[in-house]
Amino acid sequence: MRLVIGIGNTLRGDDGIGVAVAERVAAQHSAPDLEVIACHQLTPELIALISQAEQVIFVDASVTQPSGSLQVQPLDPEQAPMLSVHHTSPSALLMAAKVLYGAQPHSTLITVGAQEFGFTEQFSQPVAEALPRAVRLVLSLLGRQSSEAH
Fold it and tell me: What class, spelled out in words, does domain 2-149 have in CATH?
């Protein structure tokens, strides 16, 4: 199974970009081995699902990069911070999947530079323009992993 997890709060402007990407990926790419989840934040309840995946792509907003820019980074479970019962990081979930289930899916984090986090359901212009690029990037990564598996 391949898994896409979009993270964010759709009521806080650019913070909802991960959710929007996940929703568009689900609408554009249906496959029996693809599961797409949109969530407000990462929680330990996702560990079991992550452990069943061959590939996991996380998509989230970032305040540390230029607005509208895309960054792709492979994730290493060994670089994980502590796991919290309320919310956690992608790497911490991957580490838990490794420890609890022996699972080590190929994992990537895509971040979109964000600037507007006020109470709005609208993206800033740079993030709105980045949305289709982020969707294409996720679809490309899904296609690449799928073709490598065959």
Answer: alpha beta
